[in-house]
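Deliverable D4.2, example record:
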Amino acid sequence: MNYEIKQVDKFKFIEVGEGEPLVLLHGLFGALSNFSDLIDYFRHHNKVVVPMLPLLDLDLLHTSVSGLEKFVHKFIEQRDYQNVHLLGNSLGGHVAILHVLKHPERIKSLILTGSSGLFENGMGDTYPKRGDYEYIKKKTEITFYDPKTATKEIVDEVYDTVNNRLKAIKIIALAKSAIRNNLGEELNQIKQPTLLIWGNNDAVTPPFVGREFQRLIPNSELHFIDKCGHAPMMEVPEEFNRILHKFLTKLNEPAAVA
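Output generated by the structure prediction step:
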C-alpha cells in the first residue's frame, strides 16, 4: 500500500475513492498498514478515509479515549463528511462508539471489530517490560490467530514504542482510560445500524465480548470468522471485506415496498 498522506491543519490522513465516507480508526498499536487490504477493496465503492490518530501526541491530560474522540469529531467536522460509515478496530472501535454516542448526526452506520468498551485483555496490568524483546514479541503474537502475522516489523514497532518512557506512559494511560470508560450502560442509545465482525480466536476481546455488544446495541448484527484473532481485517481480509460489503450494500438498498 502506498497512498499519499494528506495534511490539512493538524490532521494527517489518507483519503481515496469516491462515495459515502468509510472512516477507519486503528487501535492502540495499530497503523495505516492494518487497513491496506480494506482500503484497496473499498476505494472502488466508497471514499475511504484513515485519519492518523494522535495516540502518542496528545498531552498527558488528554491521552484518553475521550481525548481521541474529540480529535475524531474535529476531523469529521473539518472535512464536512456526511453519511459516514465509521469503522474501528480495538481501541479505535471504542473511540468510534463514543463518537456515535456524542455526535450521531453525521454517522450512517457503525462497524466494530475486536472493539474495547466492554472488556479487554491488555498488554497486562503492569508496566510493559522495557528491554525484553521476547516478552513484547509474545504479547504481540497473541493478538493474532497465526503468530506469523506478527511480523518482525510489527514487533519492532511495538518494542520501540514501549522502550520510549514517555510513549510507554501514554500507552498505559490510554489502556487504563479504555478500561475505566466502560460503555455498557450507554450502548442501547445507539440508533445506527451496527455491524460486529469478530475473530473466533480473539484473545484480547474474546467472542463473548462480541455477543455482549450484539445484545446491548439494538440494531446490530454479529459475524464470527474462524481461525482469526483480534484484527480480522488484517488476518482474513477477503472474508472481512465480503461481510462489510454485503452490510453496506444492504444499507443502500431501498426499503422493500409492503
